[in-house]
Design brief:
Radius of gyration: 24 Å
Helix content: 25-40%
Distance between the termini: 80 Å
Strand order of the largest sheet: 15-16-17-14-13-18-19
Largest sheet: 7 strands, mixed
Length: about 500
Amino acid sequence: MSVLESIHIDGVWRTAAADGTRKVLDPADATALAVVAEGDAADTDAAIAAARRAFDDGPWPHTPTAERAALLRRVADLLQRDREEIALTESRDTGKTLEEGRVDVDDVTNAFRYFADLVMNESGGRVVDAGSADVHSVVVHEPVGVCAMITPWNYPLLQASWKVAPALAAGNTFVIKPSEVTPLSTVHLVKLLVEAGLPTGVANIVTGAGDPVGARLSEHPDVDLISFTGGLVSGTKVAQAAAPTVKKVALELGGKNPNVVFADACATEEGFDTAVDQALNAAFIHSGQVCSAGARLIIEESVKDRFVAELASRAQRIRLGRGTEEGVECGPLVSQQQLEKTEAYVASALAEGAALRCGGERPKPSEVRPEGGYFYAPTVLDNCHRGMRVIREETFGPILTVESFSTEDEAVTLANDTEYGLAGAVFSGDTARARRVAARLRHGTVWINDFHPYLPQAEWGGFGKSGVGRELGPHGLAEYRETKHVYENLRPAPVRWFAG
């Protein structure tokens, strides 16, 4: 298998300077999908230098807004042209179903179109009333400069778009490092940026490990902003590395997301069915490998037993297999490491007193195809409590824990009892109660009677250890800008502050 030239620096596709390579594995059967270049600090320095030149001396930061927006729209069109190819790549690389891959491409397309529209609809700046007709005062926004982007393995193309689209809309240049586990769709995206006519040096990609590539991006003095999506431990290291150069830092570090279900949401058979179905979606989409997964079911005591029994019954019937196969509802975990982590979390929960309602093991060979993949059965753990590791930590696997409550205040206390604060949901047939509880939840996104949908025009990010900054929406664009106040004296005259 030949080595893919997956490093793009200053308009040239290349292999790694030190000839390093890495196999990209298909998580459904652990076979090699591709061999990509494994970059190092030297490749990273070269990419940063190219982005620096393109920003300081190139045309992109000064390109009219209409032209930047037009390029983003061309990229969106190219994404739709290659929709099936990219979706297949994403499915095979991450293990998710092909339909999920198609949805991802559509969401990425929408992100590029949204930021194109957003910058086109802006005015020339915010005029500030200085209290004098002799003064013209305006606040304007300029690009930050060279942006470093580090993206995760679960939604590689989607998370790349949330960074690349606003960065380009604002006039920045960038270096992106996709996860070494799932880099292929991001390589494709950079190729589309080049095809769309982005000037040389604006978009650079270095495939490789977090150390050294991500570490070098975080610490480099010529990087003006670092945007990272991933785990808390790695995100903390990024922030520490960035601190000495006082660069802008944006972090999305996952969550431990509550799904609060009140008994009144289950008062009718339709309501009960909907709440159970949404709990399944919340926990098991993409095998639970979602930063906003509703991995904590917090359910009112009076309906818990019936609800959990039905939930476990349906979870057992989720069809596992290769994501590209017809009828498959859930694919494998992304890697052997993630599979072993999932097993360890379940073992610790059972040792701490959780009751296993379904799953809790790798499926038997007769239950899933192909064999040899990183599959784990959707798992429901009942009778859980806050002292358990599986409740406190982000598991990133097909594990749903169950806690119960008796009062509204208790439900809110449980839902907020986490170091994270990315997302959460409330299911209730009482609109006033649902909105009241939503207002009390300390999470960046709160759904009412739904789970998982997001809008490119609405900000995404979390409270607490879920990170700092926001992606998407107007604030997602603002992350990639500096704010400047220009004060113009229209009738300059001596001040005479000093007599001499």
